[in-house]
Design goal:
Blueprint lengths: L6 H10 L4 E3 L19 E6 L5 H10 E2 L2 E2 L5 E3 L5 E3 L10 E2 L1 H9 L11 E2 L4 E6 L11 H18 L6 E3 H4 L11 H13 L1
Parallel strand pairs: 1-6, 2-9, 2-10, 5-9
Antiparallel strand pairs: 3-4, 5-6, 7-8
């Protein structure tokens, strides 16, 4: 468990890891903190957006939808490998998930199957939405995957976490499929290598 990074520390950690960052509007104060706590934080959650078009995707993740107000994550990773910061604090991204999974993330152990949706994940996870249709055919460019690795590693490095603190939405909430197009075990392997540097 950890206290969430300040907005300045978050930005600095990302840049120190070599992430190309774009600050979108007043992202430092854009959050859903009035709806509940932000923290203690325990990990990083990776999503795909099921959208196409970088500008529209960033706008959606920043502003949200009528049924789900933004921000829908902390950062949007577009196809070109840019990380667009859209929020800091509680964000509508994780939703309800499995308390057994949360305990495994905290303990940095192998994840159990996610078969319940009984715990609000929004206080506990940094969230990255990644521009991809999520149909299993839309490609994941090398630059985008590298930014997912670096951004995840930046948070883990700051908090002293291992790669086991990074999970996919599909590992948290029953019925979710994101991110689709690579495996989380592959991604965690890349993050593990990055954290050795």
């Amino acid at each position: 468990m950890a206290t969430p990074m300040s907005a300045s520390a978050f930005l600095a950690a990302l840049r120190a890891e070599g992430v190309r960052v774009v600050e979108e509007g007043d992202w430092r104060h854009h959050n859903r903190d009035h709806k509940g706590p932000w923290g203690p934080v325990n990990g990083v959650m990776i999503h795909h957006t099921a959208t196409t078009g970088s500008a529209a995707t960033v706008r959606l993740c920043r502003d949200g939808r009528p049924d789900l107000p933004g921000p829908l994550c902390h950062g949007v990773i577009t196809k070109d490998g840019t990380l667009h910061l859209v929020g800091h604090g509680r964000a509508n991204h994780a939703g309800l998930g499995d308390d057994d999974v949360l305990r495994a993330v905290i303990a940095e152990k192998r994840l159990p199957p996610d078969n319940e949706a009984n715990t609000d994940g929004n206080p506990h996870f940094y969230g990255f939405e990644c521009e991809n249709l999520g149909d299993g055919e839309d490609p994941w460019p090398k630059a985008q995957l590298e930014t997912i690795v670096r951004a995840s590693a930046a948070i883990c490095r700051h908090h002293g976490w291992t790669e086991r603190s990074v999970i996919g939405h599909l590992e948290w909430q029953p019925g979710k499929i994101d991110p689709r197009g690579f495996t989380m075990s592959w991604l965690r392997g890349r993050i593990e290598e990055r954290l050795k540097d």
